Amino acid sequence: MRPSLAVERRGPAVWPGAPTPLGARCRVGPDGVAGTNFALWAGGAEAVELCLFGADGAERRLPLTELTHEIWHGFVPGVGAGQRYGFRVHGRWDPWTGARWNPAKLLLDPYARAVDGDFSLPAEVYGHVRDWPQQHVADTVRDDRDSAPFVPKGVVVQDDDDWADDRRPKTPWPDSVIYELHVKGFTRLHPGIPERLRGTYAGLAHPAAVEHLVGLGVTAVELLPVHQFAHEDHLLRRGLRNYWGYNSIGYFAPHAGYSSSGTTGQQVGEFKRMVRALHEAGIEVILDVVYNHTAEAGELGPTLSLKGIDNRGYYRLQADARRYADYTGCGNTLHVVQPQVLRLITDSLRYWVTEMGVDGFRFDLAAALARSMHDVDMLSPFLAVIAQDPVLRRVKLIAEPWDVGNGGYQVGAFPPLWTEWNDRYRDAVRDFWRGALPDVRDLGYRLSGSSDLYAWGGRRPYASVNFITAHDGFTLRDLVTYERKHNEPNGEGNRDGTNDNRSWNCGTEGETDDPEVNALRLRQLRNLLTTLLLSTGVPMLVAGDEMGRTQGGNNNAYCQDDETSWLDWSLPEDPGRRGLLDLTRRLLALRHTHPVLRRRAFFSGRPQGADGLRDLAWFTAEGTEMTEGDWYSPTSTLGLYLSGRDIPGRDARGEQITDDSFLAVLHAGSRPVEYLLPGPPWAESYERVLDTAEEDQTRAPGTVHRGGERVTVGARSVVLLRVGG
Questions:
Q1: Computed from CA positions of residues 7, 9, 11, 12, in that sequence, does the dihedral angle turn out positive or negative?
Q2: Cα–Cα distance for residue pair 145/164, rounded to 1 Å
Q3: Rounded distance, CA 99 to CA 503, Å?
Q4: How far is residue 715's CA from residue 695's CA, in Å, rounded to a whole number?
Q5: Helix, strand, coil proportions of the chain in percent (round to 5)?
Q6: For the chain (length 725 residues), average pLDDT per consecutive 10?
Q7: 98 half-sphere exposure, CB direction, 13 A CA radius
Q8: Which of 223, 230, 246, 624 is the most buried (most CB within 10 A)?
Q9: Residues 401-435, buried b or exposed e (16+ Cβ, 10 A)?
């Protein structure tokens, strides 16, 4: 970015304006004069200047002299959509008490709805002297150089959309299938999308992208962060970028880097058109949001926005107020107990629902948001406000139920209204298929909805978001190809990323030409996908797993903005990968057709009729119901019987819901097993629906077996049978 031209301290008059809403909003002022109202909460500040930037970079500074409840505000006539702006906030420089005001630093409006420009992070954007020789005190030495030439600007956006023509899908939780994707990575290499649209919101809205989602059968996309984010200094120094986007700096602005139409407000309209296109296809839009920390890092991080507006008001500080309380591993933690911080977050959430059309949120490190003063508290202000908010309590709310602080692991603890990423499901399923489970007690809970975690307070099986992979970690293909992470391209000496992968490489580390190893890997992929999509709860797929996408063993590809992370759309051309895609589609169609796979209540496990049949039963390889001792014994074979006649609840017309019954046999052993199918009263016969041991799935369906018959279940495979007669 080139330096600003001369600063003009005179300009248009600033009228008093109003303290609400916060941010920049186009308005008609007194006497019908059009302009923009600016409002900034800056508790403890001594003065605030609004800085307007022309197309040539010239800056005009306008003092905001009106102060109402710690909000500095003013109406500027003649200023409209497209105007670039920022703030300079005056106050004490006293890092020892947490005060870090520095008017030399141009600050991004926390409520800016569009951002123009990139954060390049030269030394000038730091409030302290970044390169001070004594680094242990560098954060206490104020840097008086102007940062304006080197930082992005907020952009005034016109309110021009009421969503009157939009029809939200409103998919019920039990019917939901979530598909986690990256806006850029999903479309960057798609051959059916015009080059100029690839990697953008418009690219995701393109019919070629939507067609894949609809054909797959997912009901919602969960977008990796699309709030405006910045790249960390240590990545920029190594020539890398933050690809995932978990480094937010603008909670109201769609990330400008994903816009094909422009960055002076056009990104807002493009995002809305993307949401509309997905809604028209029946697909909900869920945002992965990062309200636990910002891109300003700790005391040695840059001064971009909140740190310079009111450091003590926005961030959790330690007893030594120079230091930040870090429950996120990213240098800082937003102080959600503070009213202005809680307002910032909830205002942002409501904005994305009401003005941008989204249908829900997945909260990164949600436990950090649930902390009161120190401990995680499920009665915290954040959770209480969400529970009573008339807008937010009606959308999908997904918690990543942990953070990195003491007591931060909270799986199963979030209150009703919330669903949670269930990492215990992930671990149990991975361990079963790699032969590492000592017994199947935990697996039984995970396959049937995790009642041990969620059957309290009115929560239902769909409180569990079941996943085997996510953006963070191995892809599904890498899970069966690598036992060790291979993160060398990240430039951190392979120290980054987890070592607890719970993966199995099928005998060979990395890609191989060995046909037996590759056949086994494909079968393991089929097993993992089948297990996920037959389990009770809400399944989450990661984009590309249905086609066997690889990251070359990188389990922390957050900084790989290249082919490592982008979805390779040529994969289905490989016959084996095509079969994987077809199986995923078939499983999702099966799930959509059969309510027994989408239960709205937990299983009782008790007899439901005179014949003694239960809604859920478990069988050994000998066709006998599992005893308590069986649950505690090592086994590689588990039979799961789901009764379709005992589904709780009624349909929209008040009729009892009934369905087919199914028996799923999961066998993780290295040799085939002769499985005895349970006979009457469980079933007179069974029709084979799918068998993951078969590479050609079209050969499996239709075969009928008698109850009491022994059937061969192939090594490391799943057989699904429909109960007959």
A1: positive
A2: 48
A3: 47
A4: 13
A5: 25, 20, 50
A6: 51 87 95 96 97 96 97 97 98 98 98 94 96 96 97 93 84 97 98 98 98 98 98 94 97 98 96 97 98 97 98 97 95 96 98 97 96 88 95 97 93 96 98 96 97 95 98 98 98 96 97 96 98 98 98 98 97 88 97 96 83 90 95 96 87 86 97 97 95 77 90 97 90
A7: 19
A8: 230
A9: bbbbbeebebbbbbbebbbbbbbbbbbbbbbbbbe
In this structure, is the dihedral angle defined by the CA atoms of residues 572, 577, 579 and 585, taken in order, positive or negative? negative
Report the greatest alpha carbon distance in the chain.
91
**Peptide bond between residue 122 and the one before it cis (omega within 30 degrees of 0):** no
Tell me how far apart the alpha carbons of residues 658 and 667 are, in angstroms, rounded to a whole number. Answer: 28
Question: What gap in Å lies between CA 676 and CA 619, rounded to an integer?
Answer: 9
Contact 79, 12 (CB under 8 A): yes
Contacts 24+ apart (CB under 8 A), 582-585: 582/697, 583/526, 583/529, 583/530, 583/690, 583/692, 583/697, 584/216, 584/529, 584/533, 584/541, 584/546, 585/215, 585/216, 585/217, 585/546
- With CA atoms as reference, report the closest residue to 376 among 365, 389, 361, 391: 365
Is residue 232 annotated as a catalytic residue, yes or no? no
pLDDT, tens digit, 9 for 90 and up, residues 27-71: 999 989 999 999 999 999 999 999 999 999 999 999 999 999 999
Residue type, 659: D
Distant-in-sequence, close-in-space partners of 575: CB < 8 Å, separation ≥ 6: none
Distance CA 579, CA 576 (A): 5
Order across the sheet with 717-724: list the strands.
616-619, 637-642, 662-667, 717-724, 685-691, 704-706
> Rounded to whole angstroms, how far apart are CA atoms 360 and 220?
10
pLDDT for the residue 165:
80
User: Can you tell me which residue has the tokens 């070629």?
Assistant: 208
Q: Residue 493: which residues within 8 A CB-CB, separation 6 or more?
A: none
The values of phi and psi at residue 339, to 5°, are -55, -40
The rounded distance, in Å, linking the Cα atoms of 564 and 66 is: 51
Q: Which 3 state secondary structure label does DSSP give 296?
A: coil
Summarised one tens digit per residue, pLDDT across range 380-421 is 999 999 999 999 999 999 999 999 989 999 999 999 999 999
Q: Which amino acid is residue 571, in one-letter code?
A: L
Which two tokens mark 432? 């079963």
Active site residue 573: no
- What is the helix (H) or strand (E) element at residue 637, kind and residue range? strand 637-642
**Could you check whether the bond before residue 461 is cis, i.e. omega within 30 degrees of 0?**
no
How do beta strands 59-64 and 47-53 pair?
antiparallel
Instruction: Look up tokens 């960057």; give the residue.
Output: 188
Tokens for 572, please give them. 């289905």
Which entry of 364, 646, 660, 691 is annotated as an active-site residue?
364
Amino acid at site 107: L
Please write the tens of the pLDDT for every residue from 527-544. 999 999 999 999 999 999
537, amino acid identity:
G
Query: Are 289 and 218 within 8 A, CB to CB?
Result: no
The total of other beta-carbon atoms located within 10 Å of residue 18's CB is 18
Residues 6+ positions from 595 with CB-CB distance below 8 Å: 644, 647, 657, 659
Point out the catalytic residue in the list 359, 400, 545, 691: 400
